[in-house]
Amino acid sequence: MHKLWATILKDVRILGRDRLGLIFMFGMPIILAVVITALQNSTFELVNDNKVPLLLCNRDTGASSKQLMLAMEKVGIFNLKQVVANETDQQISNRMQDKDALIAIIIPTNFTNSLNNKAKEISGKALSQFGMEVDSVQPYRDELESITLLYHPVLQESFRQSIKGALRSALQLVASKQILKSLYFALNEKQMPEQLENELINNEVKINEIPISRDGSGKIPNATQHNIPAWTIFAMFFVVISLGSSVVKEKLNGSFVRLKTLPTNYMVALLSKQLTYLAVTLAQAAIIFSIGIWVFPFLGLPRLNLPADLFGLFLVSLVCGWCAVSFAIVVGIFAQTQEQANGIGAVSIVLLAAIGGLLVPSFAMPDSFKTIIKISPLHWCLEAFYGLFLEGGKLKDILTNILPLFAITLALQLIALAGLKSKNLI
Asked: What sign for the dihedral angle of Cα 360, 365, 369, 373?
């Protein structure tokens, strides 16, 4: 026990001198957690708090274009900035180049007339299908006037599709309103009362959004709940920079040979490194979680809500940390130089994070990645943390994630032992 304690003290002193490694293990994940959470939080709250700047050029003077503008305002995600009707498409594009807005909509000159004619044709066909005699209506042979949507190239495809969906909803509302007016006028030969129009149009079924959870709380997860666990895992696995280099350094300076001449063995040193860096990973988790709880609210970010099962949270953090330490030791054993350990370790962690769902959500990955994702230990770490933070689960609910992670950790331990024996180091 004395030998193990002395070795742990030695490793702690070495770790304290590795300032760059400490920055990688603590500073970088904290910065990433704050920055990414802030960016994602603004995206999550886009509909509620922020609005998308949108340039609107209305070249039509009819009622339908005005109704379209009102419908777009009611959507709630646009901050409409009207431009004069005589502005050219190029002038509007120049405004967008200057980042006045990333989206612009141009309502054409004949929008109301074309929509009215199309509505009369559709209402006439509908009444004919009902067996009612109506005045002959000339079919509207021209295409409906198209709405022009200009967008800046920096706008992502998914966000552009969301905006197009909102625009289609507004257009559908205006078109449906005009068809109802045409039907009512054909039947009653007078304009539809405004009260009846509102009752017919504003009768949409409300959507009650409830996230599923194992505890039945139905709490809506925020950006902090998503990002803090992910970047905590990222921080844990980046101990490979410090620990991998430490193992390589001891190989190169002859520590293994000297240990063979002493009444001890390298297994004690290996256990010491694991315990020391396991404590580091738990400290990383504690610090990042604490920042999410107490610092994030001062930065205007959502507070991190810890899961109800704190023992489950500790156990998940422990197994994730042990897996990260085991991976770092494997890299250190097989790397020939410190440069190799740093390069291979950093690149492999980023790669495992990418296929594990930390950088891109696993549900958004192609089917070909469904099998590959399971070989990444970071995937199982993330699923275990999400089971606690997002789904409100307890330890028994995430055992299916902890057990594969535990198996991967044991496999890494066996690989490390095999590597030491093959290199005749133990």
From this structure: positive
Return d(Cα 378, Cα 381) in angstroms, integer.
5
Sequence length of the chain is: 426
Q: Sort residue 318 into left (φ over 0), alpha (ψ -120 to 50) or beta.
A: alpha
Using H for helix, E for strand and C for coil, what is the string for 365-383? CCCCHHHHHHHCHHHHHHH
3-class state of residue 18 by DSSP = coil
Q: Are 104 and 192 in contact (CB under 8 A)?
A: no
182-239 residue pLDDT tens: 777 777 767 777 676 666 666 666 767 666 666 666 566 777 888 899 889 988 998 8
Tokens of 292: 């999410």
CA 329 to CA 170: how far, in whole Å?
58
Tell me which architecture the domain covering 51-201 has in CATH: 3-Layer(aba) Sandwich (3.40)
The CA distance from 260 to 268, in Å, is 12
Domain ranges of the chain: 8-43+217-422, 51-201
Contact (Cβ atoms closer than 8 angstroms) between residue 355 and residue 372: yes
Q: What is the pLDDT of residues 5-20, one digit of tens each?
A: 666 776 777 777 777 7
For residue 194, which amino acid is it?
Answer: E
Q: Report the C-alpha gap between 183 and 185 in whole angstroms.
A: 6
Helices 399-422 and 377-389 meet at what angle, rounded to 10? 150
For residue 296, give both structure tokens.
């994030």
Q: Which two tokens stand for residue 241?
A: 């920079």
Give the separation between CA 275 and CA 281, rounded to whole angstroms.
10
Centre a 10 Å sphere on the Cβ of residue 365 and count the other Cβ atoms it contains.
15
pTM over 0.85: no
